[in-house]
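Milestone 3.1: sequence recovery, worked example.
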């Protein structure tokens, strides 16, 4: 179903206000919690930063190459022990079998993988987040120097918070990232209601003050980090994009077995409906710029949860493999 830009923005506004509480509860976390799924094939890789030592999990390509590298970004509720990609999926096994090295940064709850203007004053954060600098300088250089990983022509993908962040990294660091993928990302964050919804989400996920991230709403930094706004950069860079979203309707992965599951499923459905409106708006923006280099893959049914995001990695793999290194 196609929407006009005006109707998309209206939908984003209504949904954002209507779903503030579900968003705060569930964004980036999927329809239900899962037990940790540590993969012994991975290794811990620590790198110093202005935020202190940061761990990433490294999974080496099956053929031993160091030229093909992809970064996997987590959701809003990123934990400090393992990435959600390792906890809730096994996509690293498929990626390494395709001879792609996988880098999973660990941590960054509510960060949007961004450089913040100040530490949050609502939760005692000791230093401002500096995730963009970490990913594009500290980690990038350490991977090249210590592991020999190619620092150029990499890929990056993420879900929800990590989806929009993947596009930010590709837009402003095109030498490092020639490929970027967003699954259920929020790609129109200047739409009416989105800032208010994000404010509530960050307060719920760690007690973060969103004003410490990019300053007050409508600041230059807010616009800098809005994929809808910087879409022309992705077109100019020639970035290969893979963009996906579900439709918010439960599918075969979403059998409800308890009242708690029903609660989480309702939240996940609402979140995905917002992601769909954002993604459709971003697609309209990209289409308005002329022929491009993007794949838009809409799941017939699907909510905001890990099973669908893992499916997208598998769908994307041939395209990713053909466009990195």
């Amino acid at each position: 179903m196609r929407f006009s830009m005006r109707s998309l923005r209206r939908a984003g506004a209504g949904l954002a206000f209507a779903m503030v509480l579900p968003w705060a509860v569930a964004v980036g976390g999927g329809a239900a919690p899962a037990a940790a799924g540590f993969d012994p094939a991975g290794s811990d890789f620590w790198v110093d930063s202005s935020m202190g030592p940061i761990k990433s999990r490294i999974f080496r390509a099956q053929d031993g190459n160091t030229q093909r590298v992809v970064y996997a970004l987590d959701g809003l509720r990123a934990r400090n022990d393992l990435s959600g990609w390792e906890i809730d999926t096994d996509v690293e096994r498929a990626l390494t079998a395709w001879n792609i090295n996988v880098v999973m940064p660990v941590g960054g709850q509510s960060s949007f993988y961004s450089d913040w203007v100040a530490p949050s004053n609502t939760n005692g954060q000791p230093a401002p987040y500096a995730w963009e600098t970490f990913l594009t300088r500290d980690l990038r250089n350490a991977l090249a120097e210590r592991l020999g990983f190619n620092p150029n022509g990499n890929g990056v993908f993420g879900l929800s918070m990590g989806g929009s962040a993947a596009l930010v990294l590709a837009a402003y660091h095109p030498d490092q990232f020639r490929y970027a993928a967003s699954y259920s990302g929020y790609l129109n964050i200047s739409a009416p209601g989105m800032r208010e919804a994000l404010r509530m989400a960050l307060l719920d996920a760690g007690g973060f003050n969103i004003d410490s991230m990019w300053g007050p709403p409508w600041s230059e930094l807010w616009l800098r980090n809005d994929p809808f706004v910087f879409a022309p950069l992705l077109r100019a860079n020639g970035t290969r994009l893979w963009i996906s979203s579900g439709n918010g309707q439960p599918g075969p992965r979403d059998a409800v077995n308890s009242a708690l599951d029903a609660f989480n499923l309702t939240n996940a459905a609402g979140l995905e409906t917002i992601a769909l409106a954002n993604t459709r708006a971003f697609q309209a923006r990209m289409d308005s710029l002329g022929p491009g280099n993007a794949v838009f893959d809409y799941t017939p049914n699907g909510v905001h949860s890990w099973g669908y995001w893992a499916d997208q990695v598998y769908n994307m793999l041939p395209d990713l493999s053909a466009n990195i290194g």
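Residues 1-35 have pLDDT under 50 and may be disordered. Residues 5-323 form a domain with the Rossmann fold fold (CATH 3.40.50.1820).
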